[in-house]
Design brief:
The protein is built from one helix and 44 strands. With about 550 residues, it is an all-beta fold. The chain has a five-stranded antiparallel beta sheet, with no helix packed on it. The radius of gyration is 31 Å and the shape is extended. The N terminus is likely disordered.
Length: about 550
């Protein structure tokens, strides 16, 4: 079936309280006319106690998305036909979202009106109305269509889907540059996956009509296919591979996951791709979207040169779905393996592995808040790179080259949380591989007494650790001096939280900090420096005395 883009009609200006009056111009009396490629938004005024009305010229089969937003009143919107028959009405998009949203497809052409009012009140004021009007082609699930965008370069499709169904929309011929998908409420679906088969995949959360907008080159064609998942899911258990051979387009697996799990999935599927849906890996309730933007949360890792392997950090008890998606009208032969336990790094001993080219390895170790640890990685055939994640899945450290003389990595860090830490090993640039070794050790601290000058000696790019007992509200002064290098040191609470620090500067041989301690406990000082000797002194320096 060949589809052609229909030229949409203009939206008339605001009329009076009766009829379909208004000017012959665009939205709001101006010259802005929505063409289906994007939303058109204008700022308008609602007279208190008097609904606004906006005329629409509609062709048969056209769809509109209308959104009304304001902080001045609780908006309500509805659409009526020329006989004042109400077709659709909405107060809140969903519970807690007071914007009004209308999504409607018209079954016959004619003149219609969008009405805007204040829900159960006579308030008024400024509001914004956004509208998108387009004529979609109706498609059925598991149906393939050919579409040819004309000069506009885009085409809309409307299709109905059951609740909680995995949907695949695939492009044949690579002629489509982009695609957008909208749910039954007209919200753009953001967590849409892609794969090398030039397809998009997402889950229909509710039953109803969904919308897709394809953008392609002029006079090129592509195919649209929405494929339902196999209704019977295979429950994965840890251990051996689970094999499945079917003619269905999508095979779905599910498994239970607990908070703090680091899970690896490997899939071998002929002519198929593996998807893991992010929406099924929820965040802790205490972690909001703004926090996610500011701090990197463990990503879902995948191999660039070896497809079909994923690593997931689970932040909340849940059931995760995995879909293996094959070629259209071809049988899938797949084997999926679930691993819930990672190899553990040995404490104060060496651990070894072998990294495949373009791959990554995952390790774990138990950590305690306040511990000062040292991690090392050594490899002769690839540029060693290591990412360390805390028990909340935050990327807290990246280890790379120690120096230009080798490919190894090493660093010291103070842990701030008690629990399981994860380490991901890969080659810098993902272009190398080979055997490697890992080191993991807890670094001891030397006792630092008050009013006593302590001496130490630092190796090249070295470190030293001191500890002392402090009391709440005690004012201390820490002084460090070296004539061999510019000193730097950090002061930590017992739980590993940084309290204060002093960075070394070239030409300066002494650094001091003074502060009041926040609590009783053991405090640690981590010193970093270059080859040379230093002196350190801790004083009880109470200004109140």
């Amino acid at each position: 079936m060949i589809l052609t883009v229909t030229t949409v009609g203009s939206i008339l200006g605001q009329g009076g309280q009766s009829g379909f009056g208004g000017g012959a111009g665009g939205f709001g009396g101006g010259n802005i006319v929505p063409d289906g490629s994007a939303e058109t938004t204008e700022t308008l005024i609602l007279t208190p106690g008097q609904p606004s009305e906006w005329g629409l010229e509609i062709e048969e089969g056209e769809t509109v998305f209308v959104t009304v937003t304001t902080v001045n009143f609780d908006p309500e919107a509805w659409i009526v036909d020329s006989e004042e028959n109400e077709l659709i009405r909405n107060d809140d998009i969903v519970k807690g979202d007071q914007r009004s949203r209308l999504v409607h497809t018209f079954d016959k052409e004619g003149d219609y009106k969008i009405m805007v009012g204040s829900f159960e009140s006579k308030l008024g004021g400024q509001y914004e109305m956004s509208i998108r009007k387009f004529k979609p082609e109706l498609a059925e699930l598991n149906e393939t269509k050919k579409q040819t965008p004309e000069e506009s370069g885009y085409q809309w499709v409307r299709f109905e889907a059951p609740k909680e169904t995995t949907l695949l929309v695939r492009i044949e011929g690579r002629s489509a540059r982009d695609a957008e998908f909208y749910d039954t409420l007209g919200n753009e679906i953001e967590d849409v996956g892609t794969n090398y088969l030039d397809g998009w995949v997402f889950v229909s959360e509710t039953e109803g009509f969904y919308y897709a907008k394809f953008v392609g080159s002029d006079e090129t064609s592509y195919e649209f296919s929405a494929l339902t998942e196999v209704q019977k899911e295979t429950v994965l258990e840890k251990g051996p591979s689970h094999h499945n051979s079917t003619s269905d387009a999508i095979v779905t697996y599910s498994f239970a996951a607990s908070t703090g799990d680091l899970i690896q999935l490997e899939s071998e599927a002929r002519g198929a791709s593996t998807y893991i849906f992010h929406k099924d890996v929820p965040l802790p309730e205490a972690m909001d979207k703004e926090e996610i933007k500011d701090e990197q949360i463990m990503p879902i890792w995948s191999r660039e040169k070896y497809g079909g392997r994923k690593t997931i950090f689970v932040r909340k008890d849940t059931t995760i779905k995995v879909s293996v998606i094959g070629s259209i009208n071809e049988a899938i032969e797949s084997a999926v393996t679930l691993t819930k336990t990672m190899p553990a790094m040995r404490l104060n001993a060496s651990s070894s592995g072998n990294l495949k080219v373009g791959d990554y390895d995952t390790w774990e170790f138990e950590g305690r808040a306040g511990d000062v640890i040292r991690l090392t990685g050594e490899a002769a055939t690839f540029d060693f790179n290591m990412h360390v994640y805390d028990p909340d899945g935050r990327d807290i450290e990246e280890l790379c080259d120690i120096s230009s003389e080798n490919l190894n990595a090493s660093d010291e860090m103070v842990l701030t949380k008690t629990g399981k830490y994860f380490v991901i090993i890969h080659s810098y640039g993902n272009g190398g591989g080979g055997s490697y070794s890992l080191g993991h050790s807890i670094l001891p601290a030397k006792n630092l007494a008050f009013e006593t000058v302590q001496t130490g000696e630092m190796a090249d790019d070295g470190y030293d650790i001191w500890s002392f007992g402090g009391k709440k509200d005690q004012t201390i002064l820490i002084s460090m001096r070296s004539t061999d290098f510019s000193p730097s040191f950090y002061l930590y609470k017992a739980n590993g939280e940084v309290l204060n620090f002093s960075f070394g500067r070239s030409g300066s041989d002494q650094k001091t900090i003074t502060m009041k301690l926040p609590e009783d406990g053991t405090y640690k000082i981590l010193i970093r420096g270059d080859d040379g000797k230093y002196k350190l002194k801790l004083m009880d320096f109470d200004f109140a005395s």
